Amino acid sequence: MTDAPPATPPLVALHDIHKTFGAVSALRGVSIDVQPGETFALLGDNAAGKSTLMKVLTGVYQPDRGFIELDGQRTEFPTPSASRDQGVEMVYQDFALADNLDVRSNIFLGREPQKNILGPLLKIIDRKKMEAETKRVLERLDIPINPRLKVKRLSGGQRQAVAIGRALAFDARLIIMDEPTANLSVAKVDKLIEVTQRLKDLGIAVIIITHRLDEAFAVADRFAVMRQGQVVGRFRVGDVSEAQVAHLISHGTLDDYVDNGSGIPEERRKIGSTSSMDVVDAVAARGSKGGNGS
Amino acid sequence: MSLTMDNIKTKLGPADLKDGTAATKIKRFIGDYGIIVLFVVILLVLAAAAPNFLTLNNIVNVVRQSSIIGLIALGMTFIMITAGIDLSVGSIVGLAGMTFALLAPASGGAFWLPLIVGLGVGLLVGFLSAALVVWGAILPFLATLATMAIARTAVLVMTNGQVVSGLSGPAEWLGSGFIGPVPVPVIIFLIAAIICEFVLSRTKFGSHVYAVGGNEESAKKVGISTGRVLFAVYLIGGVTAALGGLVLTARLDGAAPVAGTGYELQVIAAVVIGGTSLFGGVGTIRGTVIGVLLLGVVMNGMNLLGVSSYYQQGVQGIILVLAVLLNRWKSD
């Protein structure tokens, strides 16, 4: 085994997460882990449980069962701010921007730095600091935007940069992107690949929630496929074909997958089997190192 | 790479704004300063047409008359920036003013006590509006239509529809007194305007007011307690309206149960003329002050020129329409 699990603990690991809403089991024992600096895609159809899982990770929901580990230490995210304080930041599908405010105000929205005037009782927003930090963060992303521009003047890609910049400004270690291309033109997917590469260079891990295979295959190192509240497969990009994953997303298993000449070896065809996660992991781990998403 | 709309915007957007063609520059200037230019033009026309207009006496008079609507408009600006509205301000003027008028003569030397109770009444109505808007999830227009009716009923019941007159000395000073050459109501308005300007443009809370008006969902997602922000703006609106009511009562040396009726429309007009959008997210206290003064000056000018009062509301309406068109053109 040349590709044994790394000695360092994963940045974030979710273990056996269960979450039920009334009669609906949204999550039924989901485990995923993300390595530092890794780009991880969470694939699945609508209502597969991707968003619920991420809401557990961002402190919006509390799991009924299971737990979260950060740097190998068990932790809890009772509130969204607790999760953010630990460096887990969310980039929403709609980017959660206020169009009427400028770029710097959006980056610091809700977390504006303040300074005292006339003693500690009277505080004002420190706009200078906001501007300087905004410049720094957008330079790190290599997407320079005038910090004083109103967000309504920005293009889709620039808006996304502001949303990602917001996460960077607060020293994110893990950025979760919800359907990152949903609000971008097709051509912008290239830019997204560039940005995730950039984040990787900065040592920041990324989880991309998506139902688009091309997107996941383009940017991710590894991915997990979810269906009906469970993980039905975990792979390195390059170990499986898009056709196989599409089949997995809709059927939950590769057992009945008919290979129409994509050249995937026999043993891999079973990797989608949900009967044992360990088998899946072992097979996935045996997969080539060479698979890469960039 | 295909030439999508996104690409075009990326290429043209920022550069376009940085340098700016002559046309966009002119547009931005008119957008930002158009109302001030209009204000100055009106001042010049009136100065030429009405010889009494530019006297110190008259100017002091105009500002004093405007200060009551002005006080109410300050709070209304906060509310309207959150994309809300408060129709109850006229009734708050009546209720707070009446409370003050009833308590002032009996309070003897403790002149501040009826003031505080009067402001408290404004807070109470503001709280009720906020509770309906935030907890009841009722549209601000409807919620405050209800509190408008409820507060007006309270005034009428309180006095059985009777007028109350005759305040004690210090209470009267609030409406008619001077500090140096400046009337007390003007000083109150100025101080309140400076505080509101500071809060709205410099503080975290002010920034959140804009965020809630710009995109309430986004504000929630980034962890802003939007309910708290909304509560705060309706409380501010209640207090400033009550303050206007106290000054009105002091100025008239008494209170009528119907006092303040219709003020909400004048106030909303002034705030909109000052550049605040009914859709929220946009507006300033500076603009509101100009909007209030502009309306005050026009009314005063028409009086000086002997224009029949029949025409005056119509002129206000025309100015309102012009301001709305200007604001929309600016934001295009």
Description:
The complex is a heterodimer of chains A (294) and B (332). Chain A has 294 residues and is of the alpha/beta class. Chain A has a single domain, classed as Rossmann fold (3-Layer(aba) Sandwich). Chain A is built from nine helices and twelve strands. In chain A, the strands form three sheets. In chain A, strands 6-9-10-3-11-12 form a six-stranded mixed sheet, sandwiched between helices. A four-stranded antiparallel sheet of chain A has the order 2-1-4-5, covered by helices on one side. In chain A, strands 7-8 form a two-stranded antiparallel ribbon. In chain A, a hairpin with a 2-residue loop joins strand 4 and strand 5. Chain A starts with 11 loop residues before the first strand and ends in an 8-residue tail after the last helix. Chain B is built from 14 helices and four strands. In chain B, strands 1-4 form a two-stranded antiparallel sheet. In chain B, strands 2-3 form a two-stranded antiparallel sheet. Helix content of chain B is 76%, strand content 2%. The N terminus of chain B is likely disordered. With 332 residues, chain B is mainly alpha-helical.
